[in-house]
Amino acid sequence: MKSNVLNHYLILLLLAALSSCASLKPSFMYSGATEAPSPVTFTNTTPKPAETYHWDFGDGNTSDEASPVHAFMASGTYAVKLIAKTGSKSKTFEDKVSIKAPKFCLVMIETDFGNMLVRLSDGTPKHRDNFLKLGEQGFFDGTLFHRVISGFMIQGGDPNSKTAKPGQALGMGDPGYTIEAEFVDSLVHVKGALAAARTNNPQKRSSGSQFYIVHGSPVTDAQLNQIEGARNFRYSKAQRDAYQQSGGTPMLDREYTVFGQVIQGMEVIDKIAAQTTTPGDRPAKDVKMKVKVIK
User: Fold this and answer.
1) pLDDT-derived band of residue 9, with 50, 70 and 90 as boundaries?
2) Which of 87, 127, 213, 263 has the fewest C-beta atoms lying within 10 Å of its C-beta?
3) Short-list 195, 175, 191, CA closest to 120
4) What whole-number distance in Å separates Cα of residue 150 and Cα of residue 154?
5) Half-sphere exposure (CA, 13 Å, Cβ side) for 129?
6) Pairing of strands 178-179, 206-207
7) How far apart are CA 204 and CA 211, in angstroms?
8) Which segments of 51-170 are extended strands (E)?
9) What is the pLDDT of residues 192-248, one digit of tens each?
């Protein structure tokens, strides 16, 4: 009798185990560079398809895609959760994803037209550190690209633009200081170059906050030869190739400090440069920005 009861109990346990194996068991894997802000691909490995999926990446962002791609904007360890739901039943799987700090100084310039990832140059430490400081302070958040000239550049960083009324002239605001010029042979005004605006001062000192990103136009060897002769320096073959492939504004070389380069989001420059502008080159519709330091 006892043997029959025991066998019956074991059968129930086996059935329960089989039922458990057949039920929804959500899980996932991830791949890709685990260095901010490189995208990480999450692969849903749930044995049976669910009706809905909900991801919480642990950094304030979520997704309802089955297998999303997500870029973490800062280093750290994130508890990523996947909730798979069918009817009233749901299962949750959690794993920790470790993200390393980037090897280079990176900032993300966010706009309504998309984001631009910019690498700051270690060869211009004064400009690099100042831009990082202002970015971490939120100085640029809510400021405008207040001067836009297609084929030339898009300019922003005027603190007065945060509260500017339509039609208000901009371009005179700053944090109250300037920065010593830092001209580096390897940094030139190819498309996507990040450079400091300035007043017409003999030392060519840069504005403490205003900057521009080169949109540019086609460049020929003859133009580069002319600039070399006038300013007594030489372009490398790589620089000549970059100018001829991407365009730029070489007439600004050695006149304004270049201190970074857009490495993702070049199409965003095109979109902003294509905006309709009013007299004074201000976009008719405000182009706001946020600057986030990737660390």
Assistant:
1) very low
2) 87
3) 195
4) 8
5) 7
6) antiparallel
7) 14
8) 52-56, 62-63, 69-71, 76-86, 89-99, 106-111, 114-120, 145-149, 153-156
9) 999 999 999 999 999 999 999 999 999 999 999 999 999 989 999 999 999 999 999
| Token pair in block for residue 70 | 């997500």
DSSP state letters, 230-293: HHT----HHHHHHHHHH-B-GGGTTTS-EEEEEEE-HHHHHHHHTS-B-TTS-BSS--B-EEEE
Length of the chain (residues)? 295
Q: Which residue has the tokens 């979520």?
A: 62
Contact 102, 37 (CB under 8 A): yes
Paired with 69 in beta bridges are: 41
Main-chain phi, psi angles of 52, to 5 degrees = -140, 155
CA gap 291, 209 in Å, rounded: 12
Point out which residues pair with 27 in neighbouring strands: none
What is the spatial distance between Cα 255 and Cα 260, in angstroms, rounded to a whole number?
15
Which residue matches tokens 């199409």? Answer: 267
Whole-structure pTM over 0.70, yes or no?
yes
Distance of CA 231 to the CA centre of its chain: 34
